[in-house]
Amino acid sequence: MDLSSINPVLLLASLMVAATPILLAAIGELVVEKAGVLNLGVEGMMITGAICGFAVAVESGSPALGFLGAALGSALLSLVFAFLTQVLMSNQVATGLALTLFGLGISSLMGQGYVGIKPPGTPDLDLPVLSDLPVLGPILFSHDLVVYLSLGLVAGVWYGLNRTRAGLILRAVGENHDAAHALGYRVTLIRTAAIAFGGACAGLGGAYLSLVRVPQWTDGMTAGAGWIALAIVVFASWKAGRVLLGAYLFGGIAVLQLNLQAAGARVPVELLSMSPYLVTIAVLVIMSADRSRAALNAPAALGRSFHAAR
Amino acid sequence: MIRLEPRREPSRVWAAATPVLAVLATMVAGGLLFAMLGKDPVLAIRTIFWDPLFHPQFASYSRPQLLVKAGPLILIAVGLALGFRAGVWNIGAEGQYIIGALSGAAVALALYPADLFVLFPLMVIAGALGGFLWAMIPAILKTRFNTNEILVSLLLVYVAEQMLASAALGLLRNPDGGGFPGSRNLRDYPAAHNAEIFAGTGMHWGVAAAFIAVIFAHVLLTRHITGYHIRLTGQSPRAARFAGVNPARLVILCLGISGALAGMAGLFEVAGPAGQISIDFNVGYGFTAIIVAFLGRLHPVGILLAGLLMALTYIGGELGQLMLGLPAAAIQAFQGMLLFFLLAGDVLTNYRLRFGRTEAV
After folding, report:
1. Which of B147, B172, B348 is the best substitution to test chain A (most A C-beta atoms within 10 A)?
2. Among residues B255, B253, B286, B256, which one has the least CA distance to residue B269?
3. Phi, psi at residue B3, to the nearest 5°?
4. d(CA A108, CA A115)
5. Number of helices (H) and strands (E), helices first, in chain B?
6. Is the pLDDT of residue B360 over 50?
7. A30 CB-side CA count, 13 A
8. Chain centre distance of CA A71
9. What DSSP letter does each residue of B157-200 carry, written as one string?
């Protein structure tokens, strides 16, 4: 094995790219869960976003329109989940699974004409001074716009949840929907909005995979990224800052194992490929082992249906 | 103005009617989907639901396939339903299925070319054990560390897929296969082959095991204290704890049974219809079985019927690909839609529709 072939600067730079899809999906799911809804359909929404974004970008030639289409498409799909769980009060776990199964099917159906096509490139930013800085330039300041959008989104979600009245109401709905309802807040409406936001974020994450990270369309290309995003929300104990940490940690492992594969490490390729999933499980175990801490931040009404008595 | 009023008890009539309505609604929505793809919707629906059973030319081939496809679906779904009833969500049956197939096939290949009549039973035990142990990972993490079993069992599917790839390319590769990936074909290995019990019916040992599992689960749920505990925990975890139910034991039990059954299903498949360990011998039965479990109302007899129906959509989908050029993915979307309609219909089981104005209170 030739470890010297791994360039630490490039490694850190690609870490941010590898982490972005999961970061986007996880920050969206964080808002959904803070509103008291458990949407297990992240994988399905991501893959739908991946194909919607890919198709729109290829047809229009514009990656920006592609990302927009991905966000809209996945938000639309998430509204199916919202209708079932909020209006018809179906079981959230089962409905989330249905969303994933349906998303995998419909995306594969939509993607038939798009296999083997190259999408239009998403340009990297070229900031006048910052991008030319040694070491820091390539790591931090020469990515595409979506990477910075995802970071801005994390900051925005943190600010929105913790520093604004709307965030307080959203958290109240997630902690105790009956009390929030009694105070006159529209629980169903607020939750539906949160679900749509989560869907749009998952869609952006999926489109980032198909338009930038891979970049092409293959069936089932998210390969569990949505589930890892769900795990990262638990890892983060429902805090926006920690979602960032979790996603970058995961991105680091994903990039490192790819680099080790390329460098011809004397470890079986399969073991390296399964490492991101194994690490995610290990991290979940560590976070949930301490019961008092895990329960402290979990929204109290997570996964429970709300039905207004009157 | 339509209002929903909670029922005191879930309606038995609607619980039974919902799956039928969901299938009908899926036929309509699926027909629209096929029409959007430029296919004749009526012909497409007929090809999927009618032709596999009654087409003069194809039915003789596709009727036995019904049992071949329904067998693993029913076997897995029966186990999953026990857990779903108790609020234990094993959604990694696909992984347990793969590991079961690997362990069972490994026993057969390690003893190649044995001519022992105990070989096949040994393989079944190894398959069940493999699936059981794989399911014990989320079970023990759940009971010891309170880790979410949904995420762990699902993430382990991806780990199992990597192990399958590794086995097909390395450990279990056919030494006489000229370097091609994939194991020896177990169909050419009489002692290990899961042959049809009655030739031409599609009835192999896995299908027999599925029927036994249905009976076993039905007896367990209606006649045994453990079955009562499972139902009680699902309906009211708090009441169950007061009644002395040990939740950790129930998690181990539900994940263990469903893992063992999924592992057995994998072994029966790899030793019979699939024939060999190859990188992609698994076709997602572990995930479709989730739909089967819900469509069957988490009830063993319902699952039997739902498994047959879902098998029909698989075969009909293949026929549709052949005859109408329907894309394979359309069937997957179709099955997902079915689950949506089913879950949507459940509102009628738990709530009563009230028309008219809400009176001011």
Report:
1. B147
2. B286
3. -125, 150
4. 10
5. 14, 4
6. no
7. 33
8. 12
9. HHHHHHHHHHIIIIIT--TTSTT-SS---GGG-TTT---EEETT
Token couple for A178: 């009956």
Six-digit token string for A10: 């490039």
pTM (predicted TM-score): 0.89
- With beta carbons under 8 A apart, name residues in chain B contacting A80: 340
Residue B3: helix, strand or coil by DSSP?
A: strand
Q: What stretches of chain B adopt beta strand conformation (E)? A: 2-6, 196-198, 203-204, 351-355
* Residue where the block lists tokens 């992240």: A42
HSE, side-chain direction, 13 A CA sphere, residue B165: 13
Q: Which two tokens stand for residue A298?
A: 């979990």
DSSP for B111-166, written as a single string: TTT---TTHHHHHHHHHHHHHHHHHHHHHHHHHHH---HHHHHHHHHHHHHHHHHH
Find, among A224, A235, A239, the residue nearest to A286 by Cα: A235
Return the bridge partners of B4, or none: B353
Task: Please list the ranges in chain A whose pLDDT falls under 70.
Answer: 1-6, 125-132, 134-140, 142, 291-296, 309-310
Give A38's Cβ-side CA count (13 Å radius): 23
Residue-level pLDDT at B77: 95
Our CA-based measurement puts residue A155 at a distance from the nearest CA of chain B, in whole angstroms, of 26
Pairs across A and B, CB distance < 8 A: 137
